[in-house]
Design a protein that fits this description.
alpha/beta; Quinone Oxidoreductase, Chain A, domain 1; Rossmann fold; 2 domains; 7-stranded mixed beta sheet; 6-stranded parallel beta sheet; 28% helix
């Protein structure tokens, strides 16, 4: 199969097209024939060899997110072609994973059959063979049905961004209907999904973006107000929009740049969920004390089973009522190096994907 292989850590140039063996699914796993793969900033950190959470053994195929069709099912499932009723087989193993979208219901095979359209959230899997390839194998619990109205490119933008947005908003920051939320960097892959999810949850959504295109997107997605974070007075403008009360929750994509600003715009006993960070900062912790604030980290590898269950329900239900991934650009698989450059330098609007 065609794939992108990393044989040494380094710059984008180490992402090289190669021929690789088609992976075989083990018990409890699915194989997906991919049509698109999502490109996430974290994959650039791993590729460079600078990722504190751990590095894969070399050589490896990058990527955790993708979309395509189910191609093969591990041998502990009796798979049949989907007939549209959603239940495509019964597991022969008592330890089988739950239904994708409904983890925690052991004893049933996935609601998926050979040929069904799906998206992959490889960050939820104990094994993922890499989505920058024609085929990927991962745990059945990390594969979810892709709505017919969504393209494979859109589906490739759902896995890591969608579960990150759900975890940040609802599990870590505990956003409630009627509360206000500021999504800093809201026009990106995670942010654009967070805007839609928070809006449908009944929150008042404020978002920031860096240009007219991003600001227009936020309004289209349902934000009550959109602010240009390049404007000198945008923090004062956000405070004014809240009647100087501040917001209950901040979802932060670049904490080393914005954390102090977040604290200044936060209401008393507010919560800041940190999704992204690219450096260190020096600030006075008294700012946290003055607001009785909570600063919360968000990392999918720390997600508990009960949180995975809740996030799966949340995301699948949201997709059914119109939440969508925003695709900024699609590159051929062989141009993965260019995609890695642009996901860092041009990641302020939507999701970058690879087409396969």
């Amino acid at each position: 199969m065609r794939a992108i292989l990393v044989e040494q850590f380094g710059g984008p140039e180490v992402l090289r097209p190669a021929d690789a063996n088609v992976p075989e699914p083990c018990a409890g796993e699915l194989r997906i024939k991919l049509h698109a793969a999502g490109v996430n900033p974290v994959e650039t950190y791993i590729r460079s060899g600078n990722y504190a959470a751990g590095l894969p053994a070399l050589p490896y195929i990058p990527g955790a997110d993708g979309a395509g069709v189910v191609d093969a099912i591990g041998d502990d499932f009796n798979a049949i072609k989907s007939n549209g009723d959603g239940l495509t087989g019964v597991s022969t193993s008592p330890d089988a994973p739950g239904i994708p979208g409904m983890p925690g219901f052991p004893g049933f095979a996935p609601r998926l059959g050979i040929g069904d359209r799906v998206f992959v959230a490889g960050a939820l899997s104990s094994r993922v063979t890499g989505t920058y390839a024609e085929y990927v194998v991962c745990d059945a619990k990390a594969v979810f049905p892709l709505p017919a109205r969504m393209s494979f490119e859109q589906g490739a933008g759902l896995g890591t961004p969608g579960f990150t947005a759900c975890q940040a908003l609802f599990r870590r920051a505990r956003l409630s209907p009627g509360e206000s939320v500021l999504i800093h960097g809201a026009s990106g892959g995670v942010g654009s999904l967070a805007v839609q999810l928070a809006k449908r949850h009944g929150a008042v959504v404020y978002g920031t973006a860096g240009g007219d295109r991003g600001l227009a997107l936020l309004k289209e997605l349902g934000a009550a107000r959109a602010f240009n974070h390049n404007d000198k007075n945008y923090i004062a403008d956000i405070l004014a929009a809240t009647g100087n009360r501040g917001v209950d929750v901040v979802i932060e994509m670049l904490a080393n740049v914005n954390l102090e600003k977040d604290l200044s715009v936060l209401a008393e006993r507010g919560r800041i969920a940190i999704v992204g960070n690219r450096g260190v900062l020096d600030f006075n912790p008294r700012l946290i004390m003055l607001k009785d604030a909570e600063i919360l980290g968000v990392m999918l590898k720390n997600m508990r089973q009960d949180e995975l269950t809740a996030n799966s329900h949340t995301l699948i239900a949201a997709l059914d009522i119109g939440v969508r991934a925003v695709v900024a650009a699609a590159y051929p698989l062989e141009q993965a190096a260019a995609a890695h450059t642009d996901v860092i330098e041009k990641s302020s609007y939507g999701k970058i994907v690879l087409t396969i």
